[in-house]
Queue: 2 jobs
Job 1
Amino acid sequence: KSLDRMLNLAAAFAASKEGSQVALLNGDAPREALELQPRLLEKTLCKELLAEGQISPALVVHTGPGLLGIAGVVQSMYSPKGCLLYCILILIRMEPSGWVCSSRMR
Protein backbone atom coordinates (compact mmCIF):
# COMPACT_ATOMS: atom_id res chain seq x y z
CA LYS A 1 0.00 0.00 0.00
CA SER A 2 2.80 2.47 0.89
CA LEU A 3 4.69 1.53 -2.25
CA ASP A 4 1.63 2.27 -4.40
CA ARG A 5 1.09 5.56 -2.55
CA MET A 6 4.70 6.53 -3.18
CA LEU A 7 4.32 5.82 -6.90
CA ASN A 8 1.02 7.74 -7.05
CA LEU A 9 2.61 10.78 -5.36
CA ALA A 10 5.50 10.69 -7.83
CA ALA A 11 3.06 10.37 -10.75
CA ALA A 12 0.99 13.31 -9.49
CA PHE A 13 4.14 15.41 -9.17
CA ALA A 14 5.31 14.51 -12.67
CA ALA A 15 1.87 15.23 -14.16
CA SER A 16 1.62 18.63 -12.47
CA LYS A 17 5.05 19.97 -13.44
CA GLU A 18 6.11 20.29 -17.06
CA GLY A 19 9.66 19.06 -17.62
CA SER A 20 9.78 17.09 -14.37
CA GLN A 21 12.27 14.29 -13.90
CA VAL A 22 12.54 11.59 -11.25
CA ALA A 23 15.39 9.90 -9.44
CA LEU A 24 15.25 6.56 -7.62
CA LEU A 25 17.40 6.12 -4.54
CA ASN A 26 17.87 3.33 -2.04
CA GLY A 27 19.39 2.71 1.35
CA ASP A 28 20.62 -0.88 1.33
CA ALA A 29 17.73 -1.97 -0.91
CA PRO A 30 19.22 -2.25 -4.43
CA ARG A 31 17.09 -5.23 -5.46
CA GLU A 32 13.86 -3.50 -4.44
CA ALA A 33 14.92 -0.34 -6.28
CA LEU A 34 15.66 -2.32 -9.43
CA GLU A 35 12.22 -3.95 -9.24
CA LEU A 36 10.55 -0.57 -8.69
CA GLN A 37 12.27 1.24 -11.58
CA PRO A 38 10.03 0.11 -14.48
CA ARG A 39 6.87 0.85 -12.48
CA LEU A 40 8.17 4.31 -11.59
CA LEU A 41 9.01 5.16 -15.20
CA GLU A 42 5.62 3.89 -16.38
CA LYS A 43 3.65 5.80 -13.71
CA THR A 44 5.51 9.10 -14.19
CA LEU A 45 5.74 8.83 -18.00
CA CYS A 46 9.45 9.60 -17.74
CA LYS A 47 11.71 7.99 -20.34
CA GLU A 48 14.65 7.58 -17.98
CA LEU A 49 15.75 8.29 -14.44
CA LEU A 50 17.54 11.53 -13.69
CA ALA A 51 19.69 9.60 -11.22
CA GLU A 52 19.77 6.33 -9.34
CA GLY A 53 21.91 5.03 -6.53
CA GLN A 54 22.49 5.06 -2.81
CA ILE A 55 20.72 7.41 -0.42
CA SER A 56 23.04 9.31 1.87
CA PRO A 57 24.13 7.26 4.89
CA ALA A 58 22.96 10.20 7.01
CA LEU A 59 19.35 9.28 6.17
CA VAL A 60 19.86 5.53 6.53
CA VAL A 61 21.26 6.05 10.04
CA HIS A 62 17.84 7.37 11.11
CA THR A 63 15.68 4.87 9.24
CA GLY A 64 17.74 1.70 9.08
CA PRO A 65 18.36 -0.41 5.99
CA GLY A 66 15.65 -1.07 3.45
CA LEU A 67 14.94 2.52 2.44
CA LEU A 68 13.57 3.57 -0.96
CA GLY A 69 13.29 7.16 -2.10
CA ILE A 70 11.90 8.92 -5.13
CA ALA A 71 13.02 12.46 -5.82
CA GLY A 72 11.14 14.55 -8.34
CA VAL A 73 12.73 17.70 -9.69
CA VAL A 74 11.90 20.44 -12.15
CA GLN A 75 14.75 22.47 -13.54
CA SER A 76 14.54 25.76 -15.40
CA MET A 77 15.32 25.48 -19.09
CA TYR A 78 16.04 29.21 -19.13
CA SER A 79 18.91 29.13 -16.67
CA PRO A 80 22.37 28.26 -18.00
CA LYS A 81 23.03 26.25 -14.85
CA GLY A 82 19.58 24.63 -14.77
CA CYS A 83 18.37 26.13 -11.50
CA LEU A 84 16.17 23.88 -9.44
CA LEU A 85 12.62 25.22 -9.42
CA TYR A 86 10.74 22.58 -7.47
CA CYS A 87 11.52 19.33 -5.71
CA ILE A 88 9.72 16.57 -3.85
CA LEU A 89 11.26 13.68 -1.93
CA ILE A 90 9.24 10.65 -0.87
CA LEU A 91 10.81 8.04 1.40
CA ILE A 92 9.51 4.64 2.48
CA ARG A 93 11.21 1.96 4.53
CA MET A 94 10.83 -1.79 4.76
CA GLU A 95 9.36 -3.07 8.03
CA PRO A 96 8.54 -6.69 8.89
CA SER A 97 4.90 -5.89 8.07
CA GLY A 98 5.79 -4.36 4.66
CA TRP A 99 6.62 -0.94 3.25
CA VAL A 100 5.87 2.03 5.55
CA CYS A 101 5.83 5.69 4.55
CA SER A 102 8.77 7.36 6.21
CA SER A 103 8.46 10.96 5.06
CA ARG A 104 7.40 13.27 2.27
CA MET A 105 9.08 16.62 1.76
CA ARG A 106 8.48 19.45 -0.70
Job 2
Amino acid sequence: TPCSSHSRRRCVASSAPSSVAGNDPGTSTFGANCATCHASNGSGDTAVGKSIHIPDLRSPAVQSQPDAQLAEIITHGKGAMPPFGSSLSKDDIDALVKHIHGLAKTK
Protein backbone atom coordinates (compact mmCIF):
# COMPACT_ATOMS: atom_id res chain seq x y z
CA THR A 1 0.00 0.00 0.00
CA PRO A 2 1.15 3.58 -0.43
CA CYS A 3 1.21 3.90 3.36
CA SER A 4 3.39 0.86 4.09
CA SER A 5 6.49 2.92 4.84
CA HIS A 6 4.64 5.31 7.14
CA SER A 7 2.79 4.89 10.36
CA ARG A 8 -0.97 4.92 9.78
CA ARG A 9 -1.35 8.24 11.55
CA ARG A 10 1.37 9.87 9.47
CA CYS A 11 -0.06 8.43 6.26
CA VAL A 12 -3.55 9.73 6.95
CA ALA A 13 -2.17 13.14 7.84
CA SER A 14 0.05 13.25 4.77
CA SER A 15 -2.76 12.16 2.43
CA ALA A 16 -5.00 15.10 3.30
CA PRO A 17 -2.97 17.77 1.46
CA SER A 18 -2.87 15.67 -1.72
CA SER A 19 -6.61 16.11 -2.29
CA VAL A 20 -6.18 19.83 -1.78
CA ALA A 21 -3.32 19.75 -4.27
CA GLY A 22 -5.59 18.40 -6.99
CA ASN A 23 -5.46 14.63 -6.57
CA ASP A 24 -9.21 14.52 -5.90
CA PRO A 25 -10.41 10.99 -6.74
CA GLY A 26 -13.78 12.47 -7.73
CA THR A 27 -12.18 14.44 -10.56
CA SER A 28 -11.47 11.45 -12.79
CA THR A 29 -14.81 9.82 -11.97
CA PHE A 30 -16.59 13.09 -12.77
CA GLY A 31 -14.67 13.43 -16.03
CA ALA A 32 -15.51 9.88 -17.09
CA ASN A 33 -19.16 9.81 -16.05
CA CYS A 34 -20.54 13.32 -15.63
CA ALA A 35 -18.67 15.90 -17.72
CA THR A 36 -20.35 14.95 -21.01
CA CYS A 37 -23.55 16.52 -19.71
CA HIS A 38 -22.44 18.64 -16.77
CA ALA A 39 -19.16 20.00 -18.29
CA SER A 40 -15.85 19.60 -16.47
CA ASN A 41 -16.57 22.67 -14.34
CA GLY A 42 -20.14 21.57 -13.48
CA SER A 43 -21.77 24.46 -15.36
CA GLY A 44 -23.89 22.26 -17.62
CA ASP A 45 -22.56 24.27 -20.57
CA THR A 46 -22.46 21.34 -23.02
CA ALA A 47 -24.66 20.46 -25.99
CA VAL A 48 -26.36 17.72 -23.98
CA GLY A 49 -26.59 19.84 -20.84
CA LYS A 50 -28.17 22.73 -22.70
CA SER A 51 -30.60 20.49 -24.58
CA ILE A 52 -32.01 18.97 -21.39
CA HIS A 53 -31.63 22.11 -19.24
CA ILE A 54 -29.59 20.53 -16.48
CA PRO A 55 -28.79 22.66 -13.43
CA ASP A 56 -25.44 24.31 -12.84
CA LEU A 57 -23.81 22.09 -10.19
CA ARG A 58 -22.06 25.20 -8.82
CA SER A 59 -25.38 26.94 -8.10
CA PRO A 60 -26.66 27.54 -4.57
CA ALA A 61 -29.64 25.27 -5.33
CA VAL A 62 -27.32 22.31 -5.88
CA GLN A 63 -24.62 23.29 -3.41
CA SER A 64 -27.12 23.61 -0.56
CA GLN A 65 -28.18 19.98 -0.93
CA PRO A 66 -26.79 17.67 1.76
CA ASP A 67 -24.31 14.96 0.82
CA ALA A 68 -26.92 12.23 1.28
CA GLN A 69 -29.28 13.91 -1.21
CA LEU A 70 -26.57 14.31 -3.86
CA ALA A 71 -25.50 10.69 -3.32
CA GLU A 72 -29.11 9.59 -3.75
CA ILE A 73 -29.40 11.48 -7.06
CA ILE A 74 -26.13 10.02 -8.35
CA THR A 75 -27.13 6.52 -7.24
CA HIS A 76 -30.72 6.50 -8.52
CA GLY A 77 -30.73 9.24 -11.17
CA LYS A 78 -33.14 12.13 -11.52
CA GLY A 79 -35.09 13.32 -14.54
CA ALA A 80 -32.97 12.72 -17.63
CA MET A 81 -29.93 11.75 -15.53
CA PRO A 82 -29.38 8.00 -15.46
CA PRO A 83 -28.62 6.11 -12.25
CA PHE A 84 -24.99 5.30 -11.50
CA GLY A 85 -25.52 3.09 -8.45
CA SER A 86 -24.81 -0.11 -10.34
CA SER A 87 -21.70 1.18 -12.11
CA LEU A 88 -20.01 3.21 -9.36
CA SER A 89 -18.93 2.10 -5.89
CA LYS A 90 -20.07 3.88 -2.74
CA ASP A 91 -16.53 5.31 -2.46
CA ASP A 92 -16.77 6.62 -6.04
CA ILE A 93 -20.13 8.23 -5.30
CA ASP A 94 -18.85 9.76 -2.05
CA ALA A 95 -15.84 11.16 -3.97
CA LEU A 96 -18.22 12.62 -6.57
CA VAL A 97 -20.30 14.31 -3.88
CA LYS A 98 -17.15 15.87 -2.41
CA HIS A 99 -16.05 16.92 -5.90
CA ILE A 100 -19.45 18.48 -6.66
CA HIS A 101 -19.32 20.51 -3.45
CA GLY A 102 -15.81 21.63 -4.47
CA LEU A 103 -17.14 22.95 -7.78
CA ALA A 104 -18.74 25.91 -5.98
CA LYS A 105 -15.25 27.37 -5.59
CA THR A 106 -14.75 27.40 -9.37
CA LYS A 107 -17.72 29.61 -10.24
